[in-house]
Amino acid sequence: MKTAVIAGAGPAGLTAAFELLARSDVRPVVFEADKQVGGISKTIVYGGNRMDLGGHRFFSKSDWVMNWWQALLPVATDGAADRNLLRYQGQEREFAAPVNGARVTDDNVMLVRSRLSRIFYRRKFFDYPLKLSLDTLRNLGPGYTAAIGASYLAARLAPRSPETTLEDFLYNRFGDRLYRTFFKDYTEKVWGVACSEISAEWGAQRIKGLSITKAVKHALAAPFRKPADTRQKGTETSLIERFLYPKFGPGQMWEEAARRVTAKNGEVHLRHRIVGVHGNARRVEAVDVRDETTGEVRRQGCDYLISTLPISEITAMLKPEDMRVTQVARSLPYRDFMTAGLLVKRMKPTRADGLPGVPQDNWIYIQEPDVKLGRLQIFNNWSPYLVADPSTVWLGLEYFCREGDELWSMPDAAFLDFAAKELAKIGLIDRADVLDGTVVRVPKAYPAYFGEYRDIERVRSFLDEWQNLYPVGRNGMHRYNNQDHSMLAAKAAVDCMVAGDTNKSALWAVNAEDEYHETRK
Length: 521
Hints:
Layout: E1 3-7, H1 11-23, E2 27-32, E3 43-46, E4 49-52, H2 63-72, H3 80-92, E5 110-114, E6 117-121, E7 124-128, H4 134-140, H5 142-157, H6 166-182, H7 184-191, H8 200-206, H9 212-221, E8 242-246, H10 251-263, E9 267-270, E10 272-280, E11 283-291, E12 297-301, E13 304-307, H11 311-318, H12 323-331, E14 334-344, E15 363-366, E16 375-378, H13 379-382, E17 393-401, H14 406-409, H15 412-425, E18 434-447, H16 456-464, E19 469-471, H17 474-477, H18 483-499, H19 505-509
Parallel strand pairs: 1-2, 1-13, 2-9, 6-15, 13-19
Antiparallel strand pairs: 3-4, 5-8, 6-7, 10-11, 11-12, 14-17, 14-18, 15-16, 16-17
Helix pairs in contact: 1-10, 1-18, 4-5, 5-6, 6-8, 11-12, 12-16
């Protein structure tokens, strides 16, 4: 029996393992350096509360991905939103029929959740995406709104060409005034560099076809959409209104995937890190694996290697003769990430419907320039089952930083105090209402599109020379993928392995610049 070593037990790695067991006689052996599966899609548990790192909507325009998820965790059917879903299910074929009549009272299920995200700017809430509503006009003022419209018209009449930077990309789709108001400061807070230094490819992969025109069309069509139109296949990803979500957070999906992999005689080894690769004639033959608990290193033979390791790491292990390949791979930029989980008694603003209590947002983009806070998650609204005590509010304060910088190096207690004071400064909580907190650091969370990234094709070409090596996942491809893109890349890798095809172009075509892979079936 052939063996595939899989580096990493995130969405890409576990999808590959699952698919190999379902479609081939290749035995997957998964090595994960962390103490739990899921990668950046794992669920952190603290004090009975569950934290979703980054916010993971289970939504895709790929039917294969949607069906894959539901085969592992069926959709619960006895909530109000789910009754609407069932009412149209026979006609719309939105989700697969629930397995064994799954109910919300069951644990291994997904919930249908409504999406609400807003922008917090000038101490006011703005709809995201922006809507031409009375609230928007009131918050901006009619003069500023007119200036935004004129700026957008000017950009449409004379777009920047060639479109090489993210600034060009955003200017062409939103106009200079709107770009500078709602995109520039936040994006530069996220990436730590000017938009003029970031490749337009980032916008092409993350924003795709979204523009003012698309947003307006979406708003005008809202009264005519059926309430259960949850699949939303004709909707831009940034505009979706409903999504699926595992009852206990995203990690639940990948814990179930790992359980099924091991039940089918695959292997998943936690706290094991791949530290070396051995090969001959551009074929991987074995890997060195270190047990992070004991420090012992052993060699594992393999017929295939599916890697979600950062490109810098796998390239160094393969020892390219071309020093420029080594230099580019070693210098590829990343943005690191920290979350302060804060448990609070209450929040200060009212809900979107005007009633007192917790805002209904899943997350809020913090555009305020006087704080470093980038985004605020309200975990109660992702799933009520993420919160141990429903009378409290469980928040995730997201910060974008660089490993080793001032934020990253703060002691946990100091960082929690800093985060709580920032949230109080912009008026969303009272500092005295903070009950507890925890800090999570995620290195290499966001592959970045500037600096040496301009020569990444040189590194990709080198990796493709290795016939039985398949780079997949966000870090494995140095591509800012969603989890469904990582799954589709893993599927493409297994397709190649099953067909005996060494051409890796199908992997790199997932979420490519010229076509958003989510729009395919």
